[in-house]
Specification:
The protein is built from eight helices and 14 strands. The chain is α/β, with parallel strands linked by helices. α4 (about 85-95) runs parallel beside α6. The model has no long low-confidence stretch (mean pLDDT about 95).
Length: about 240
């Protein structure tokens, strides 16, 4: 299970959580593809005999490029677009899968940080992520099946309160360079920048406390740069 936006430091009380490095620009388009891999997890497990596979996404793989990349190796009947997570549980429960692989991509905290009126209920959303993860495990183990379940994220989030009053705005940028607050497309050589290649180009990732512009009033977090909050995501592995 891979969620969109969740930092390792968002789960301080989870004892079975390990830090996992996002080895590149900490954005959705890069992070998701890195988690799924190439060859993909699906392909690797299929070659080991895990040929019964299911995929669940909130997006249409025919029209969404990222979703297509994440689920392109699945058969057409193996991927289901869901509207609510309960649909995922119902499908899994009905399938009675054995010796198979399930891939789920879903919401994390990303949507809370970009456009949210009033302070976002981060703790509530984190509880929801863990509840959904546990619901999948419970559904599978109810039929006395052994399960190896993993939860991780595509990137972390640097929350506003960690930057407030400390950020330094890079002033000598073009308008197009300010679209993304924590990174610049292309290669820039500066002491506060780390350049990484991936996803079809180079990305200049800003170190803390640098930003391309000030945060808007409805921006509660940022990502795309290089920091422990953005670049370390949780990895939870449970074997039941």
């Amino acid at each position: 299970m891979v969620v969109d936006g969740l930092s390792y430091f968002d789960l301080p009380d989870e004892k079975d959580t390990q830090p996992c490095l996002v080895n590149g620009v900490s954005i959705t388009e890069f992070g998701y593809r890195e988690v799924i891999g190439k060859p993909t997890i699906s392909e690797r497990l299929f070659s080991l005999g895990y040929n019964h596979q299911m995929g669940f996404t909130y997006f249409d793989i025919k029209t969404n490029t990222l979703a297509n990349d994440l689920y392109g190796v699945f058969g057409s009947g193996e991927v289901r677009r869901i509207m609510a997570f309960k649909d995922c549980i119902e499908y899994i429960d009905a399938e009675k899968m054995a010796h198979g692989f399930i891939q789920i991509t879903g919401p994390g905290l990303d949507a809370l940080c970009h456009h949210h009126q009033d302070e976002p209920p981060v703790d509530h959303y984190i509880s929801g992520i863990l509840e959904r993860f546990n619901a999948v495990i419970d559904c599978l183990t109810n039929s006395h099946r052994s399960v190896l379940a993993c939860l991780t994220s595509d990137h972390g989030i640097l929350w506003r309160h960690s930057l407030e009053g400390k950020w330094t705005v890079v002033n000598d940028l073009q308008v197009d360079d300010k679209r993304c607050i924590r990174y610049i497309r292309g290669s820039r050589i500066r002491d506060y920048i780390l350049v990484k290649s991936g996803f079809g180009g180079a990305f200049s990732m800003l170190r803390i406390p640098y930003v391309t512009r000030k945060l808007r009033n409805n921006e509660w977090g940022v990502h795309g740069g290089i920091s422990a909050w953005e670049s370390l995501v949780p990895l939870i592995i449970r074997i039941i």
